[in-house]
């Protein structure tokens, strides 16, 4: 399986630079964003920022380190450079995407777009470094959406479990599914990288990721809709994950994934 080593090195170098930028951005927006939420009369959202932003900052910084390792791998023509870069790009997309949401909802400049957009380009650029079947690319893109949505469901559950503190079963529901959504999100990230790397067990990881997202999303989604009388933002994650589970169970998908050559 041929690779464009030079292009891979260039993309990894850019990714590493964006990783440094991400470190600076998270340092500068952390406390101001908490202040924005408090000024808006949403101390619950302030708690979300206080705990979730650092987590995403750690993810962004780690992704920057992985981009550097990927750069070294491309320069020395190592087969592991490509999946490592893909991992870095996938993590960076999540780290850059979610902080834009509270910023946009408060009319604040979404500065982490400077992390998200470059890494989106880099992620697709890596698909040119090592050419893959377009069907795998489409499946990876859909799984990427599930990856982000599952994480966002976990954030929403984190907010809800703080708001419903002391409300018995309702609070217990949000507490129990909060980490389940994040574990499902992590499993989707693993699926994306292992599937595009041709690992034979990737499909099972994807099925597990989808089931985790369903367990985490459907109970609170249905409960929230019954309370609000309208569509719940908890629902897109389990709905998309359900669709992906069905796709992964199709004989055609099994044949597609089983027919990949595993890079050595």
Overall description:
By secondary structure, the chain is mostly helical. The protein has two domains: 1-131; 133-264, no CATH class. 81% of the residues lie in helices and 0% in strands. It has helices spanning 5-39, 43-75, 81-97, 100-105, 113-129, 134-163, 169-196, 202-228, 236-249, 251-258. Helix 2 (43-75) runs antiparallel to helix 3 (81-97) and helix 2 (43-75) packs antiparallel against helix 6 (134-163). The radius of gyration is 19 Å and the shape is flat. The model has no long low-confidence stretch (mean pLDDT 91).
Write the layout of secondary structure elements.
Layout: H1 5-39, H2 43-75, H3 81-97, H4 100-105, H5 113-129, H6 134-163, H7 169-196, H8 202-228, H9 236-249, H10 251-258
